[in-house]
Amino acid sequence: MVLVFTRREALGLLGAGLSAFAAAPQFPKGAVIRTVLKDIPPQDLAGGATLFHEHMSLSPAFLPKFASLSRAQNPPAPAPPAQPAPQPGQTYFLEDLDLMVEEMRAAAKEGVACLVDAGHPDMGRSLDFLKHLSAQSGMPIVSSAGYYTQPFYPPEVATMSEDQIAQELIRQANTAPFGAFGEIGTWDEITPDERKVFRAVGKAHVATNLPIYTHTAFGKAALEQLDILESVGVKPQRVCIGHVGGLIDPQVQVHKALAKRGAFLGFDRQGGPGDARQVPMVMALIEAGFADNLLFASDFSNAAQLKHNGGAGYAKTLTVFAPKLREADAKEETLHGILVDNPRRFLAFVPKSARKS
Length: 357
Description:
Blueprint: H1 7-16, E1 33-34, E2 39-40, E3 49-54, H2 62-72, H3 97-109, E4 112-117, H4 127-137, E5 141-145, H5 162-175, E6 178-185, H6 192-208, E7 212-215, H7 222-231, E8 239-241, H8 253-261, E9 264-267, H9 279-287, E10 294-296, H10 316-327, H11 332-347
Parallel strand pairs: 3-4, 4-5, 5-6, 6-7, 7-8, 8-9, 9-10
Antiparallel strand pairs: 1-2
């Protein structure tokens, strides 16, 4: 018997978490997904998609600085569309709690079960804002610890040793509700400080079990990132190498090399016009047997894409990109695995210390 779903029915199937096609993923005893409000069993997120790399809190200064640095870089880092700075007296959308609550509720209605915020203090991320946002919207949110890339490092990183950075990250993980290290980035060619931070993050992972997701410039230095993390004892299965969807290669050679080692692949700019070029790459990886290594998200940071402003909103990975894969004959059970099961396997960890209130 062949099951045929309309797009609406397929989205409803995903949102309902009805995994009738394949066995549910297994998680280690005691594994949790750590959100800003509480630790939850990964089984609790079986009812929808978890998007592993989004932004719900940033400083108004971050994106203008990012865009300026990207324009000066050759080749440029993956850059979001330019956005005007908020006018005097205007609340920046990623600091507007009421607006963001509305967006989270809209995303939940379209099948999103959990969002991972990829910011940290060097981007102007507010942990308190995320806690209020999750409490008022009902959307589980995972927050992250770490450092972004060389141009955004706080000055003290230059003077700290690798072990001092690792101990600071361990302290953060043991005293705040962080569920991952990320997005940990290399801006272009890996600098000595970025290499130091990557090794420190790897050591902090070994001490805490928190998963790691990264930032690359369209996949540049992707293999070296994984090399560095592995060199300090990180298992590739606990790592997602980010922005590799921007590395356009019909042969997906780097992607396959990462997946063969066990790492997750971050296709995390999904839900816009540029993601059509990534469909053949995703399908090639699925056909090569690497569906279990794929993670999807949109790296949301554009006010124009808010539901409030007529855009696709935080669920655009589901509502804009997933239909393109269906048109390319991706099977429904495969999409369910990528959107629902893979991120839970990635985020679930067994804490080495009790959560602090």
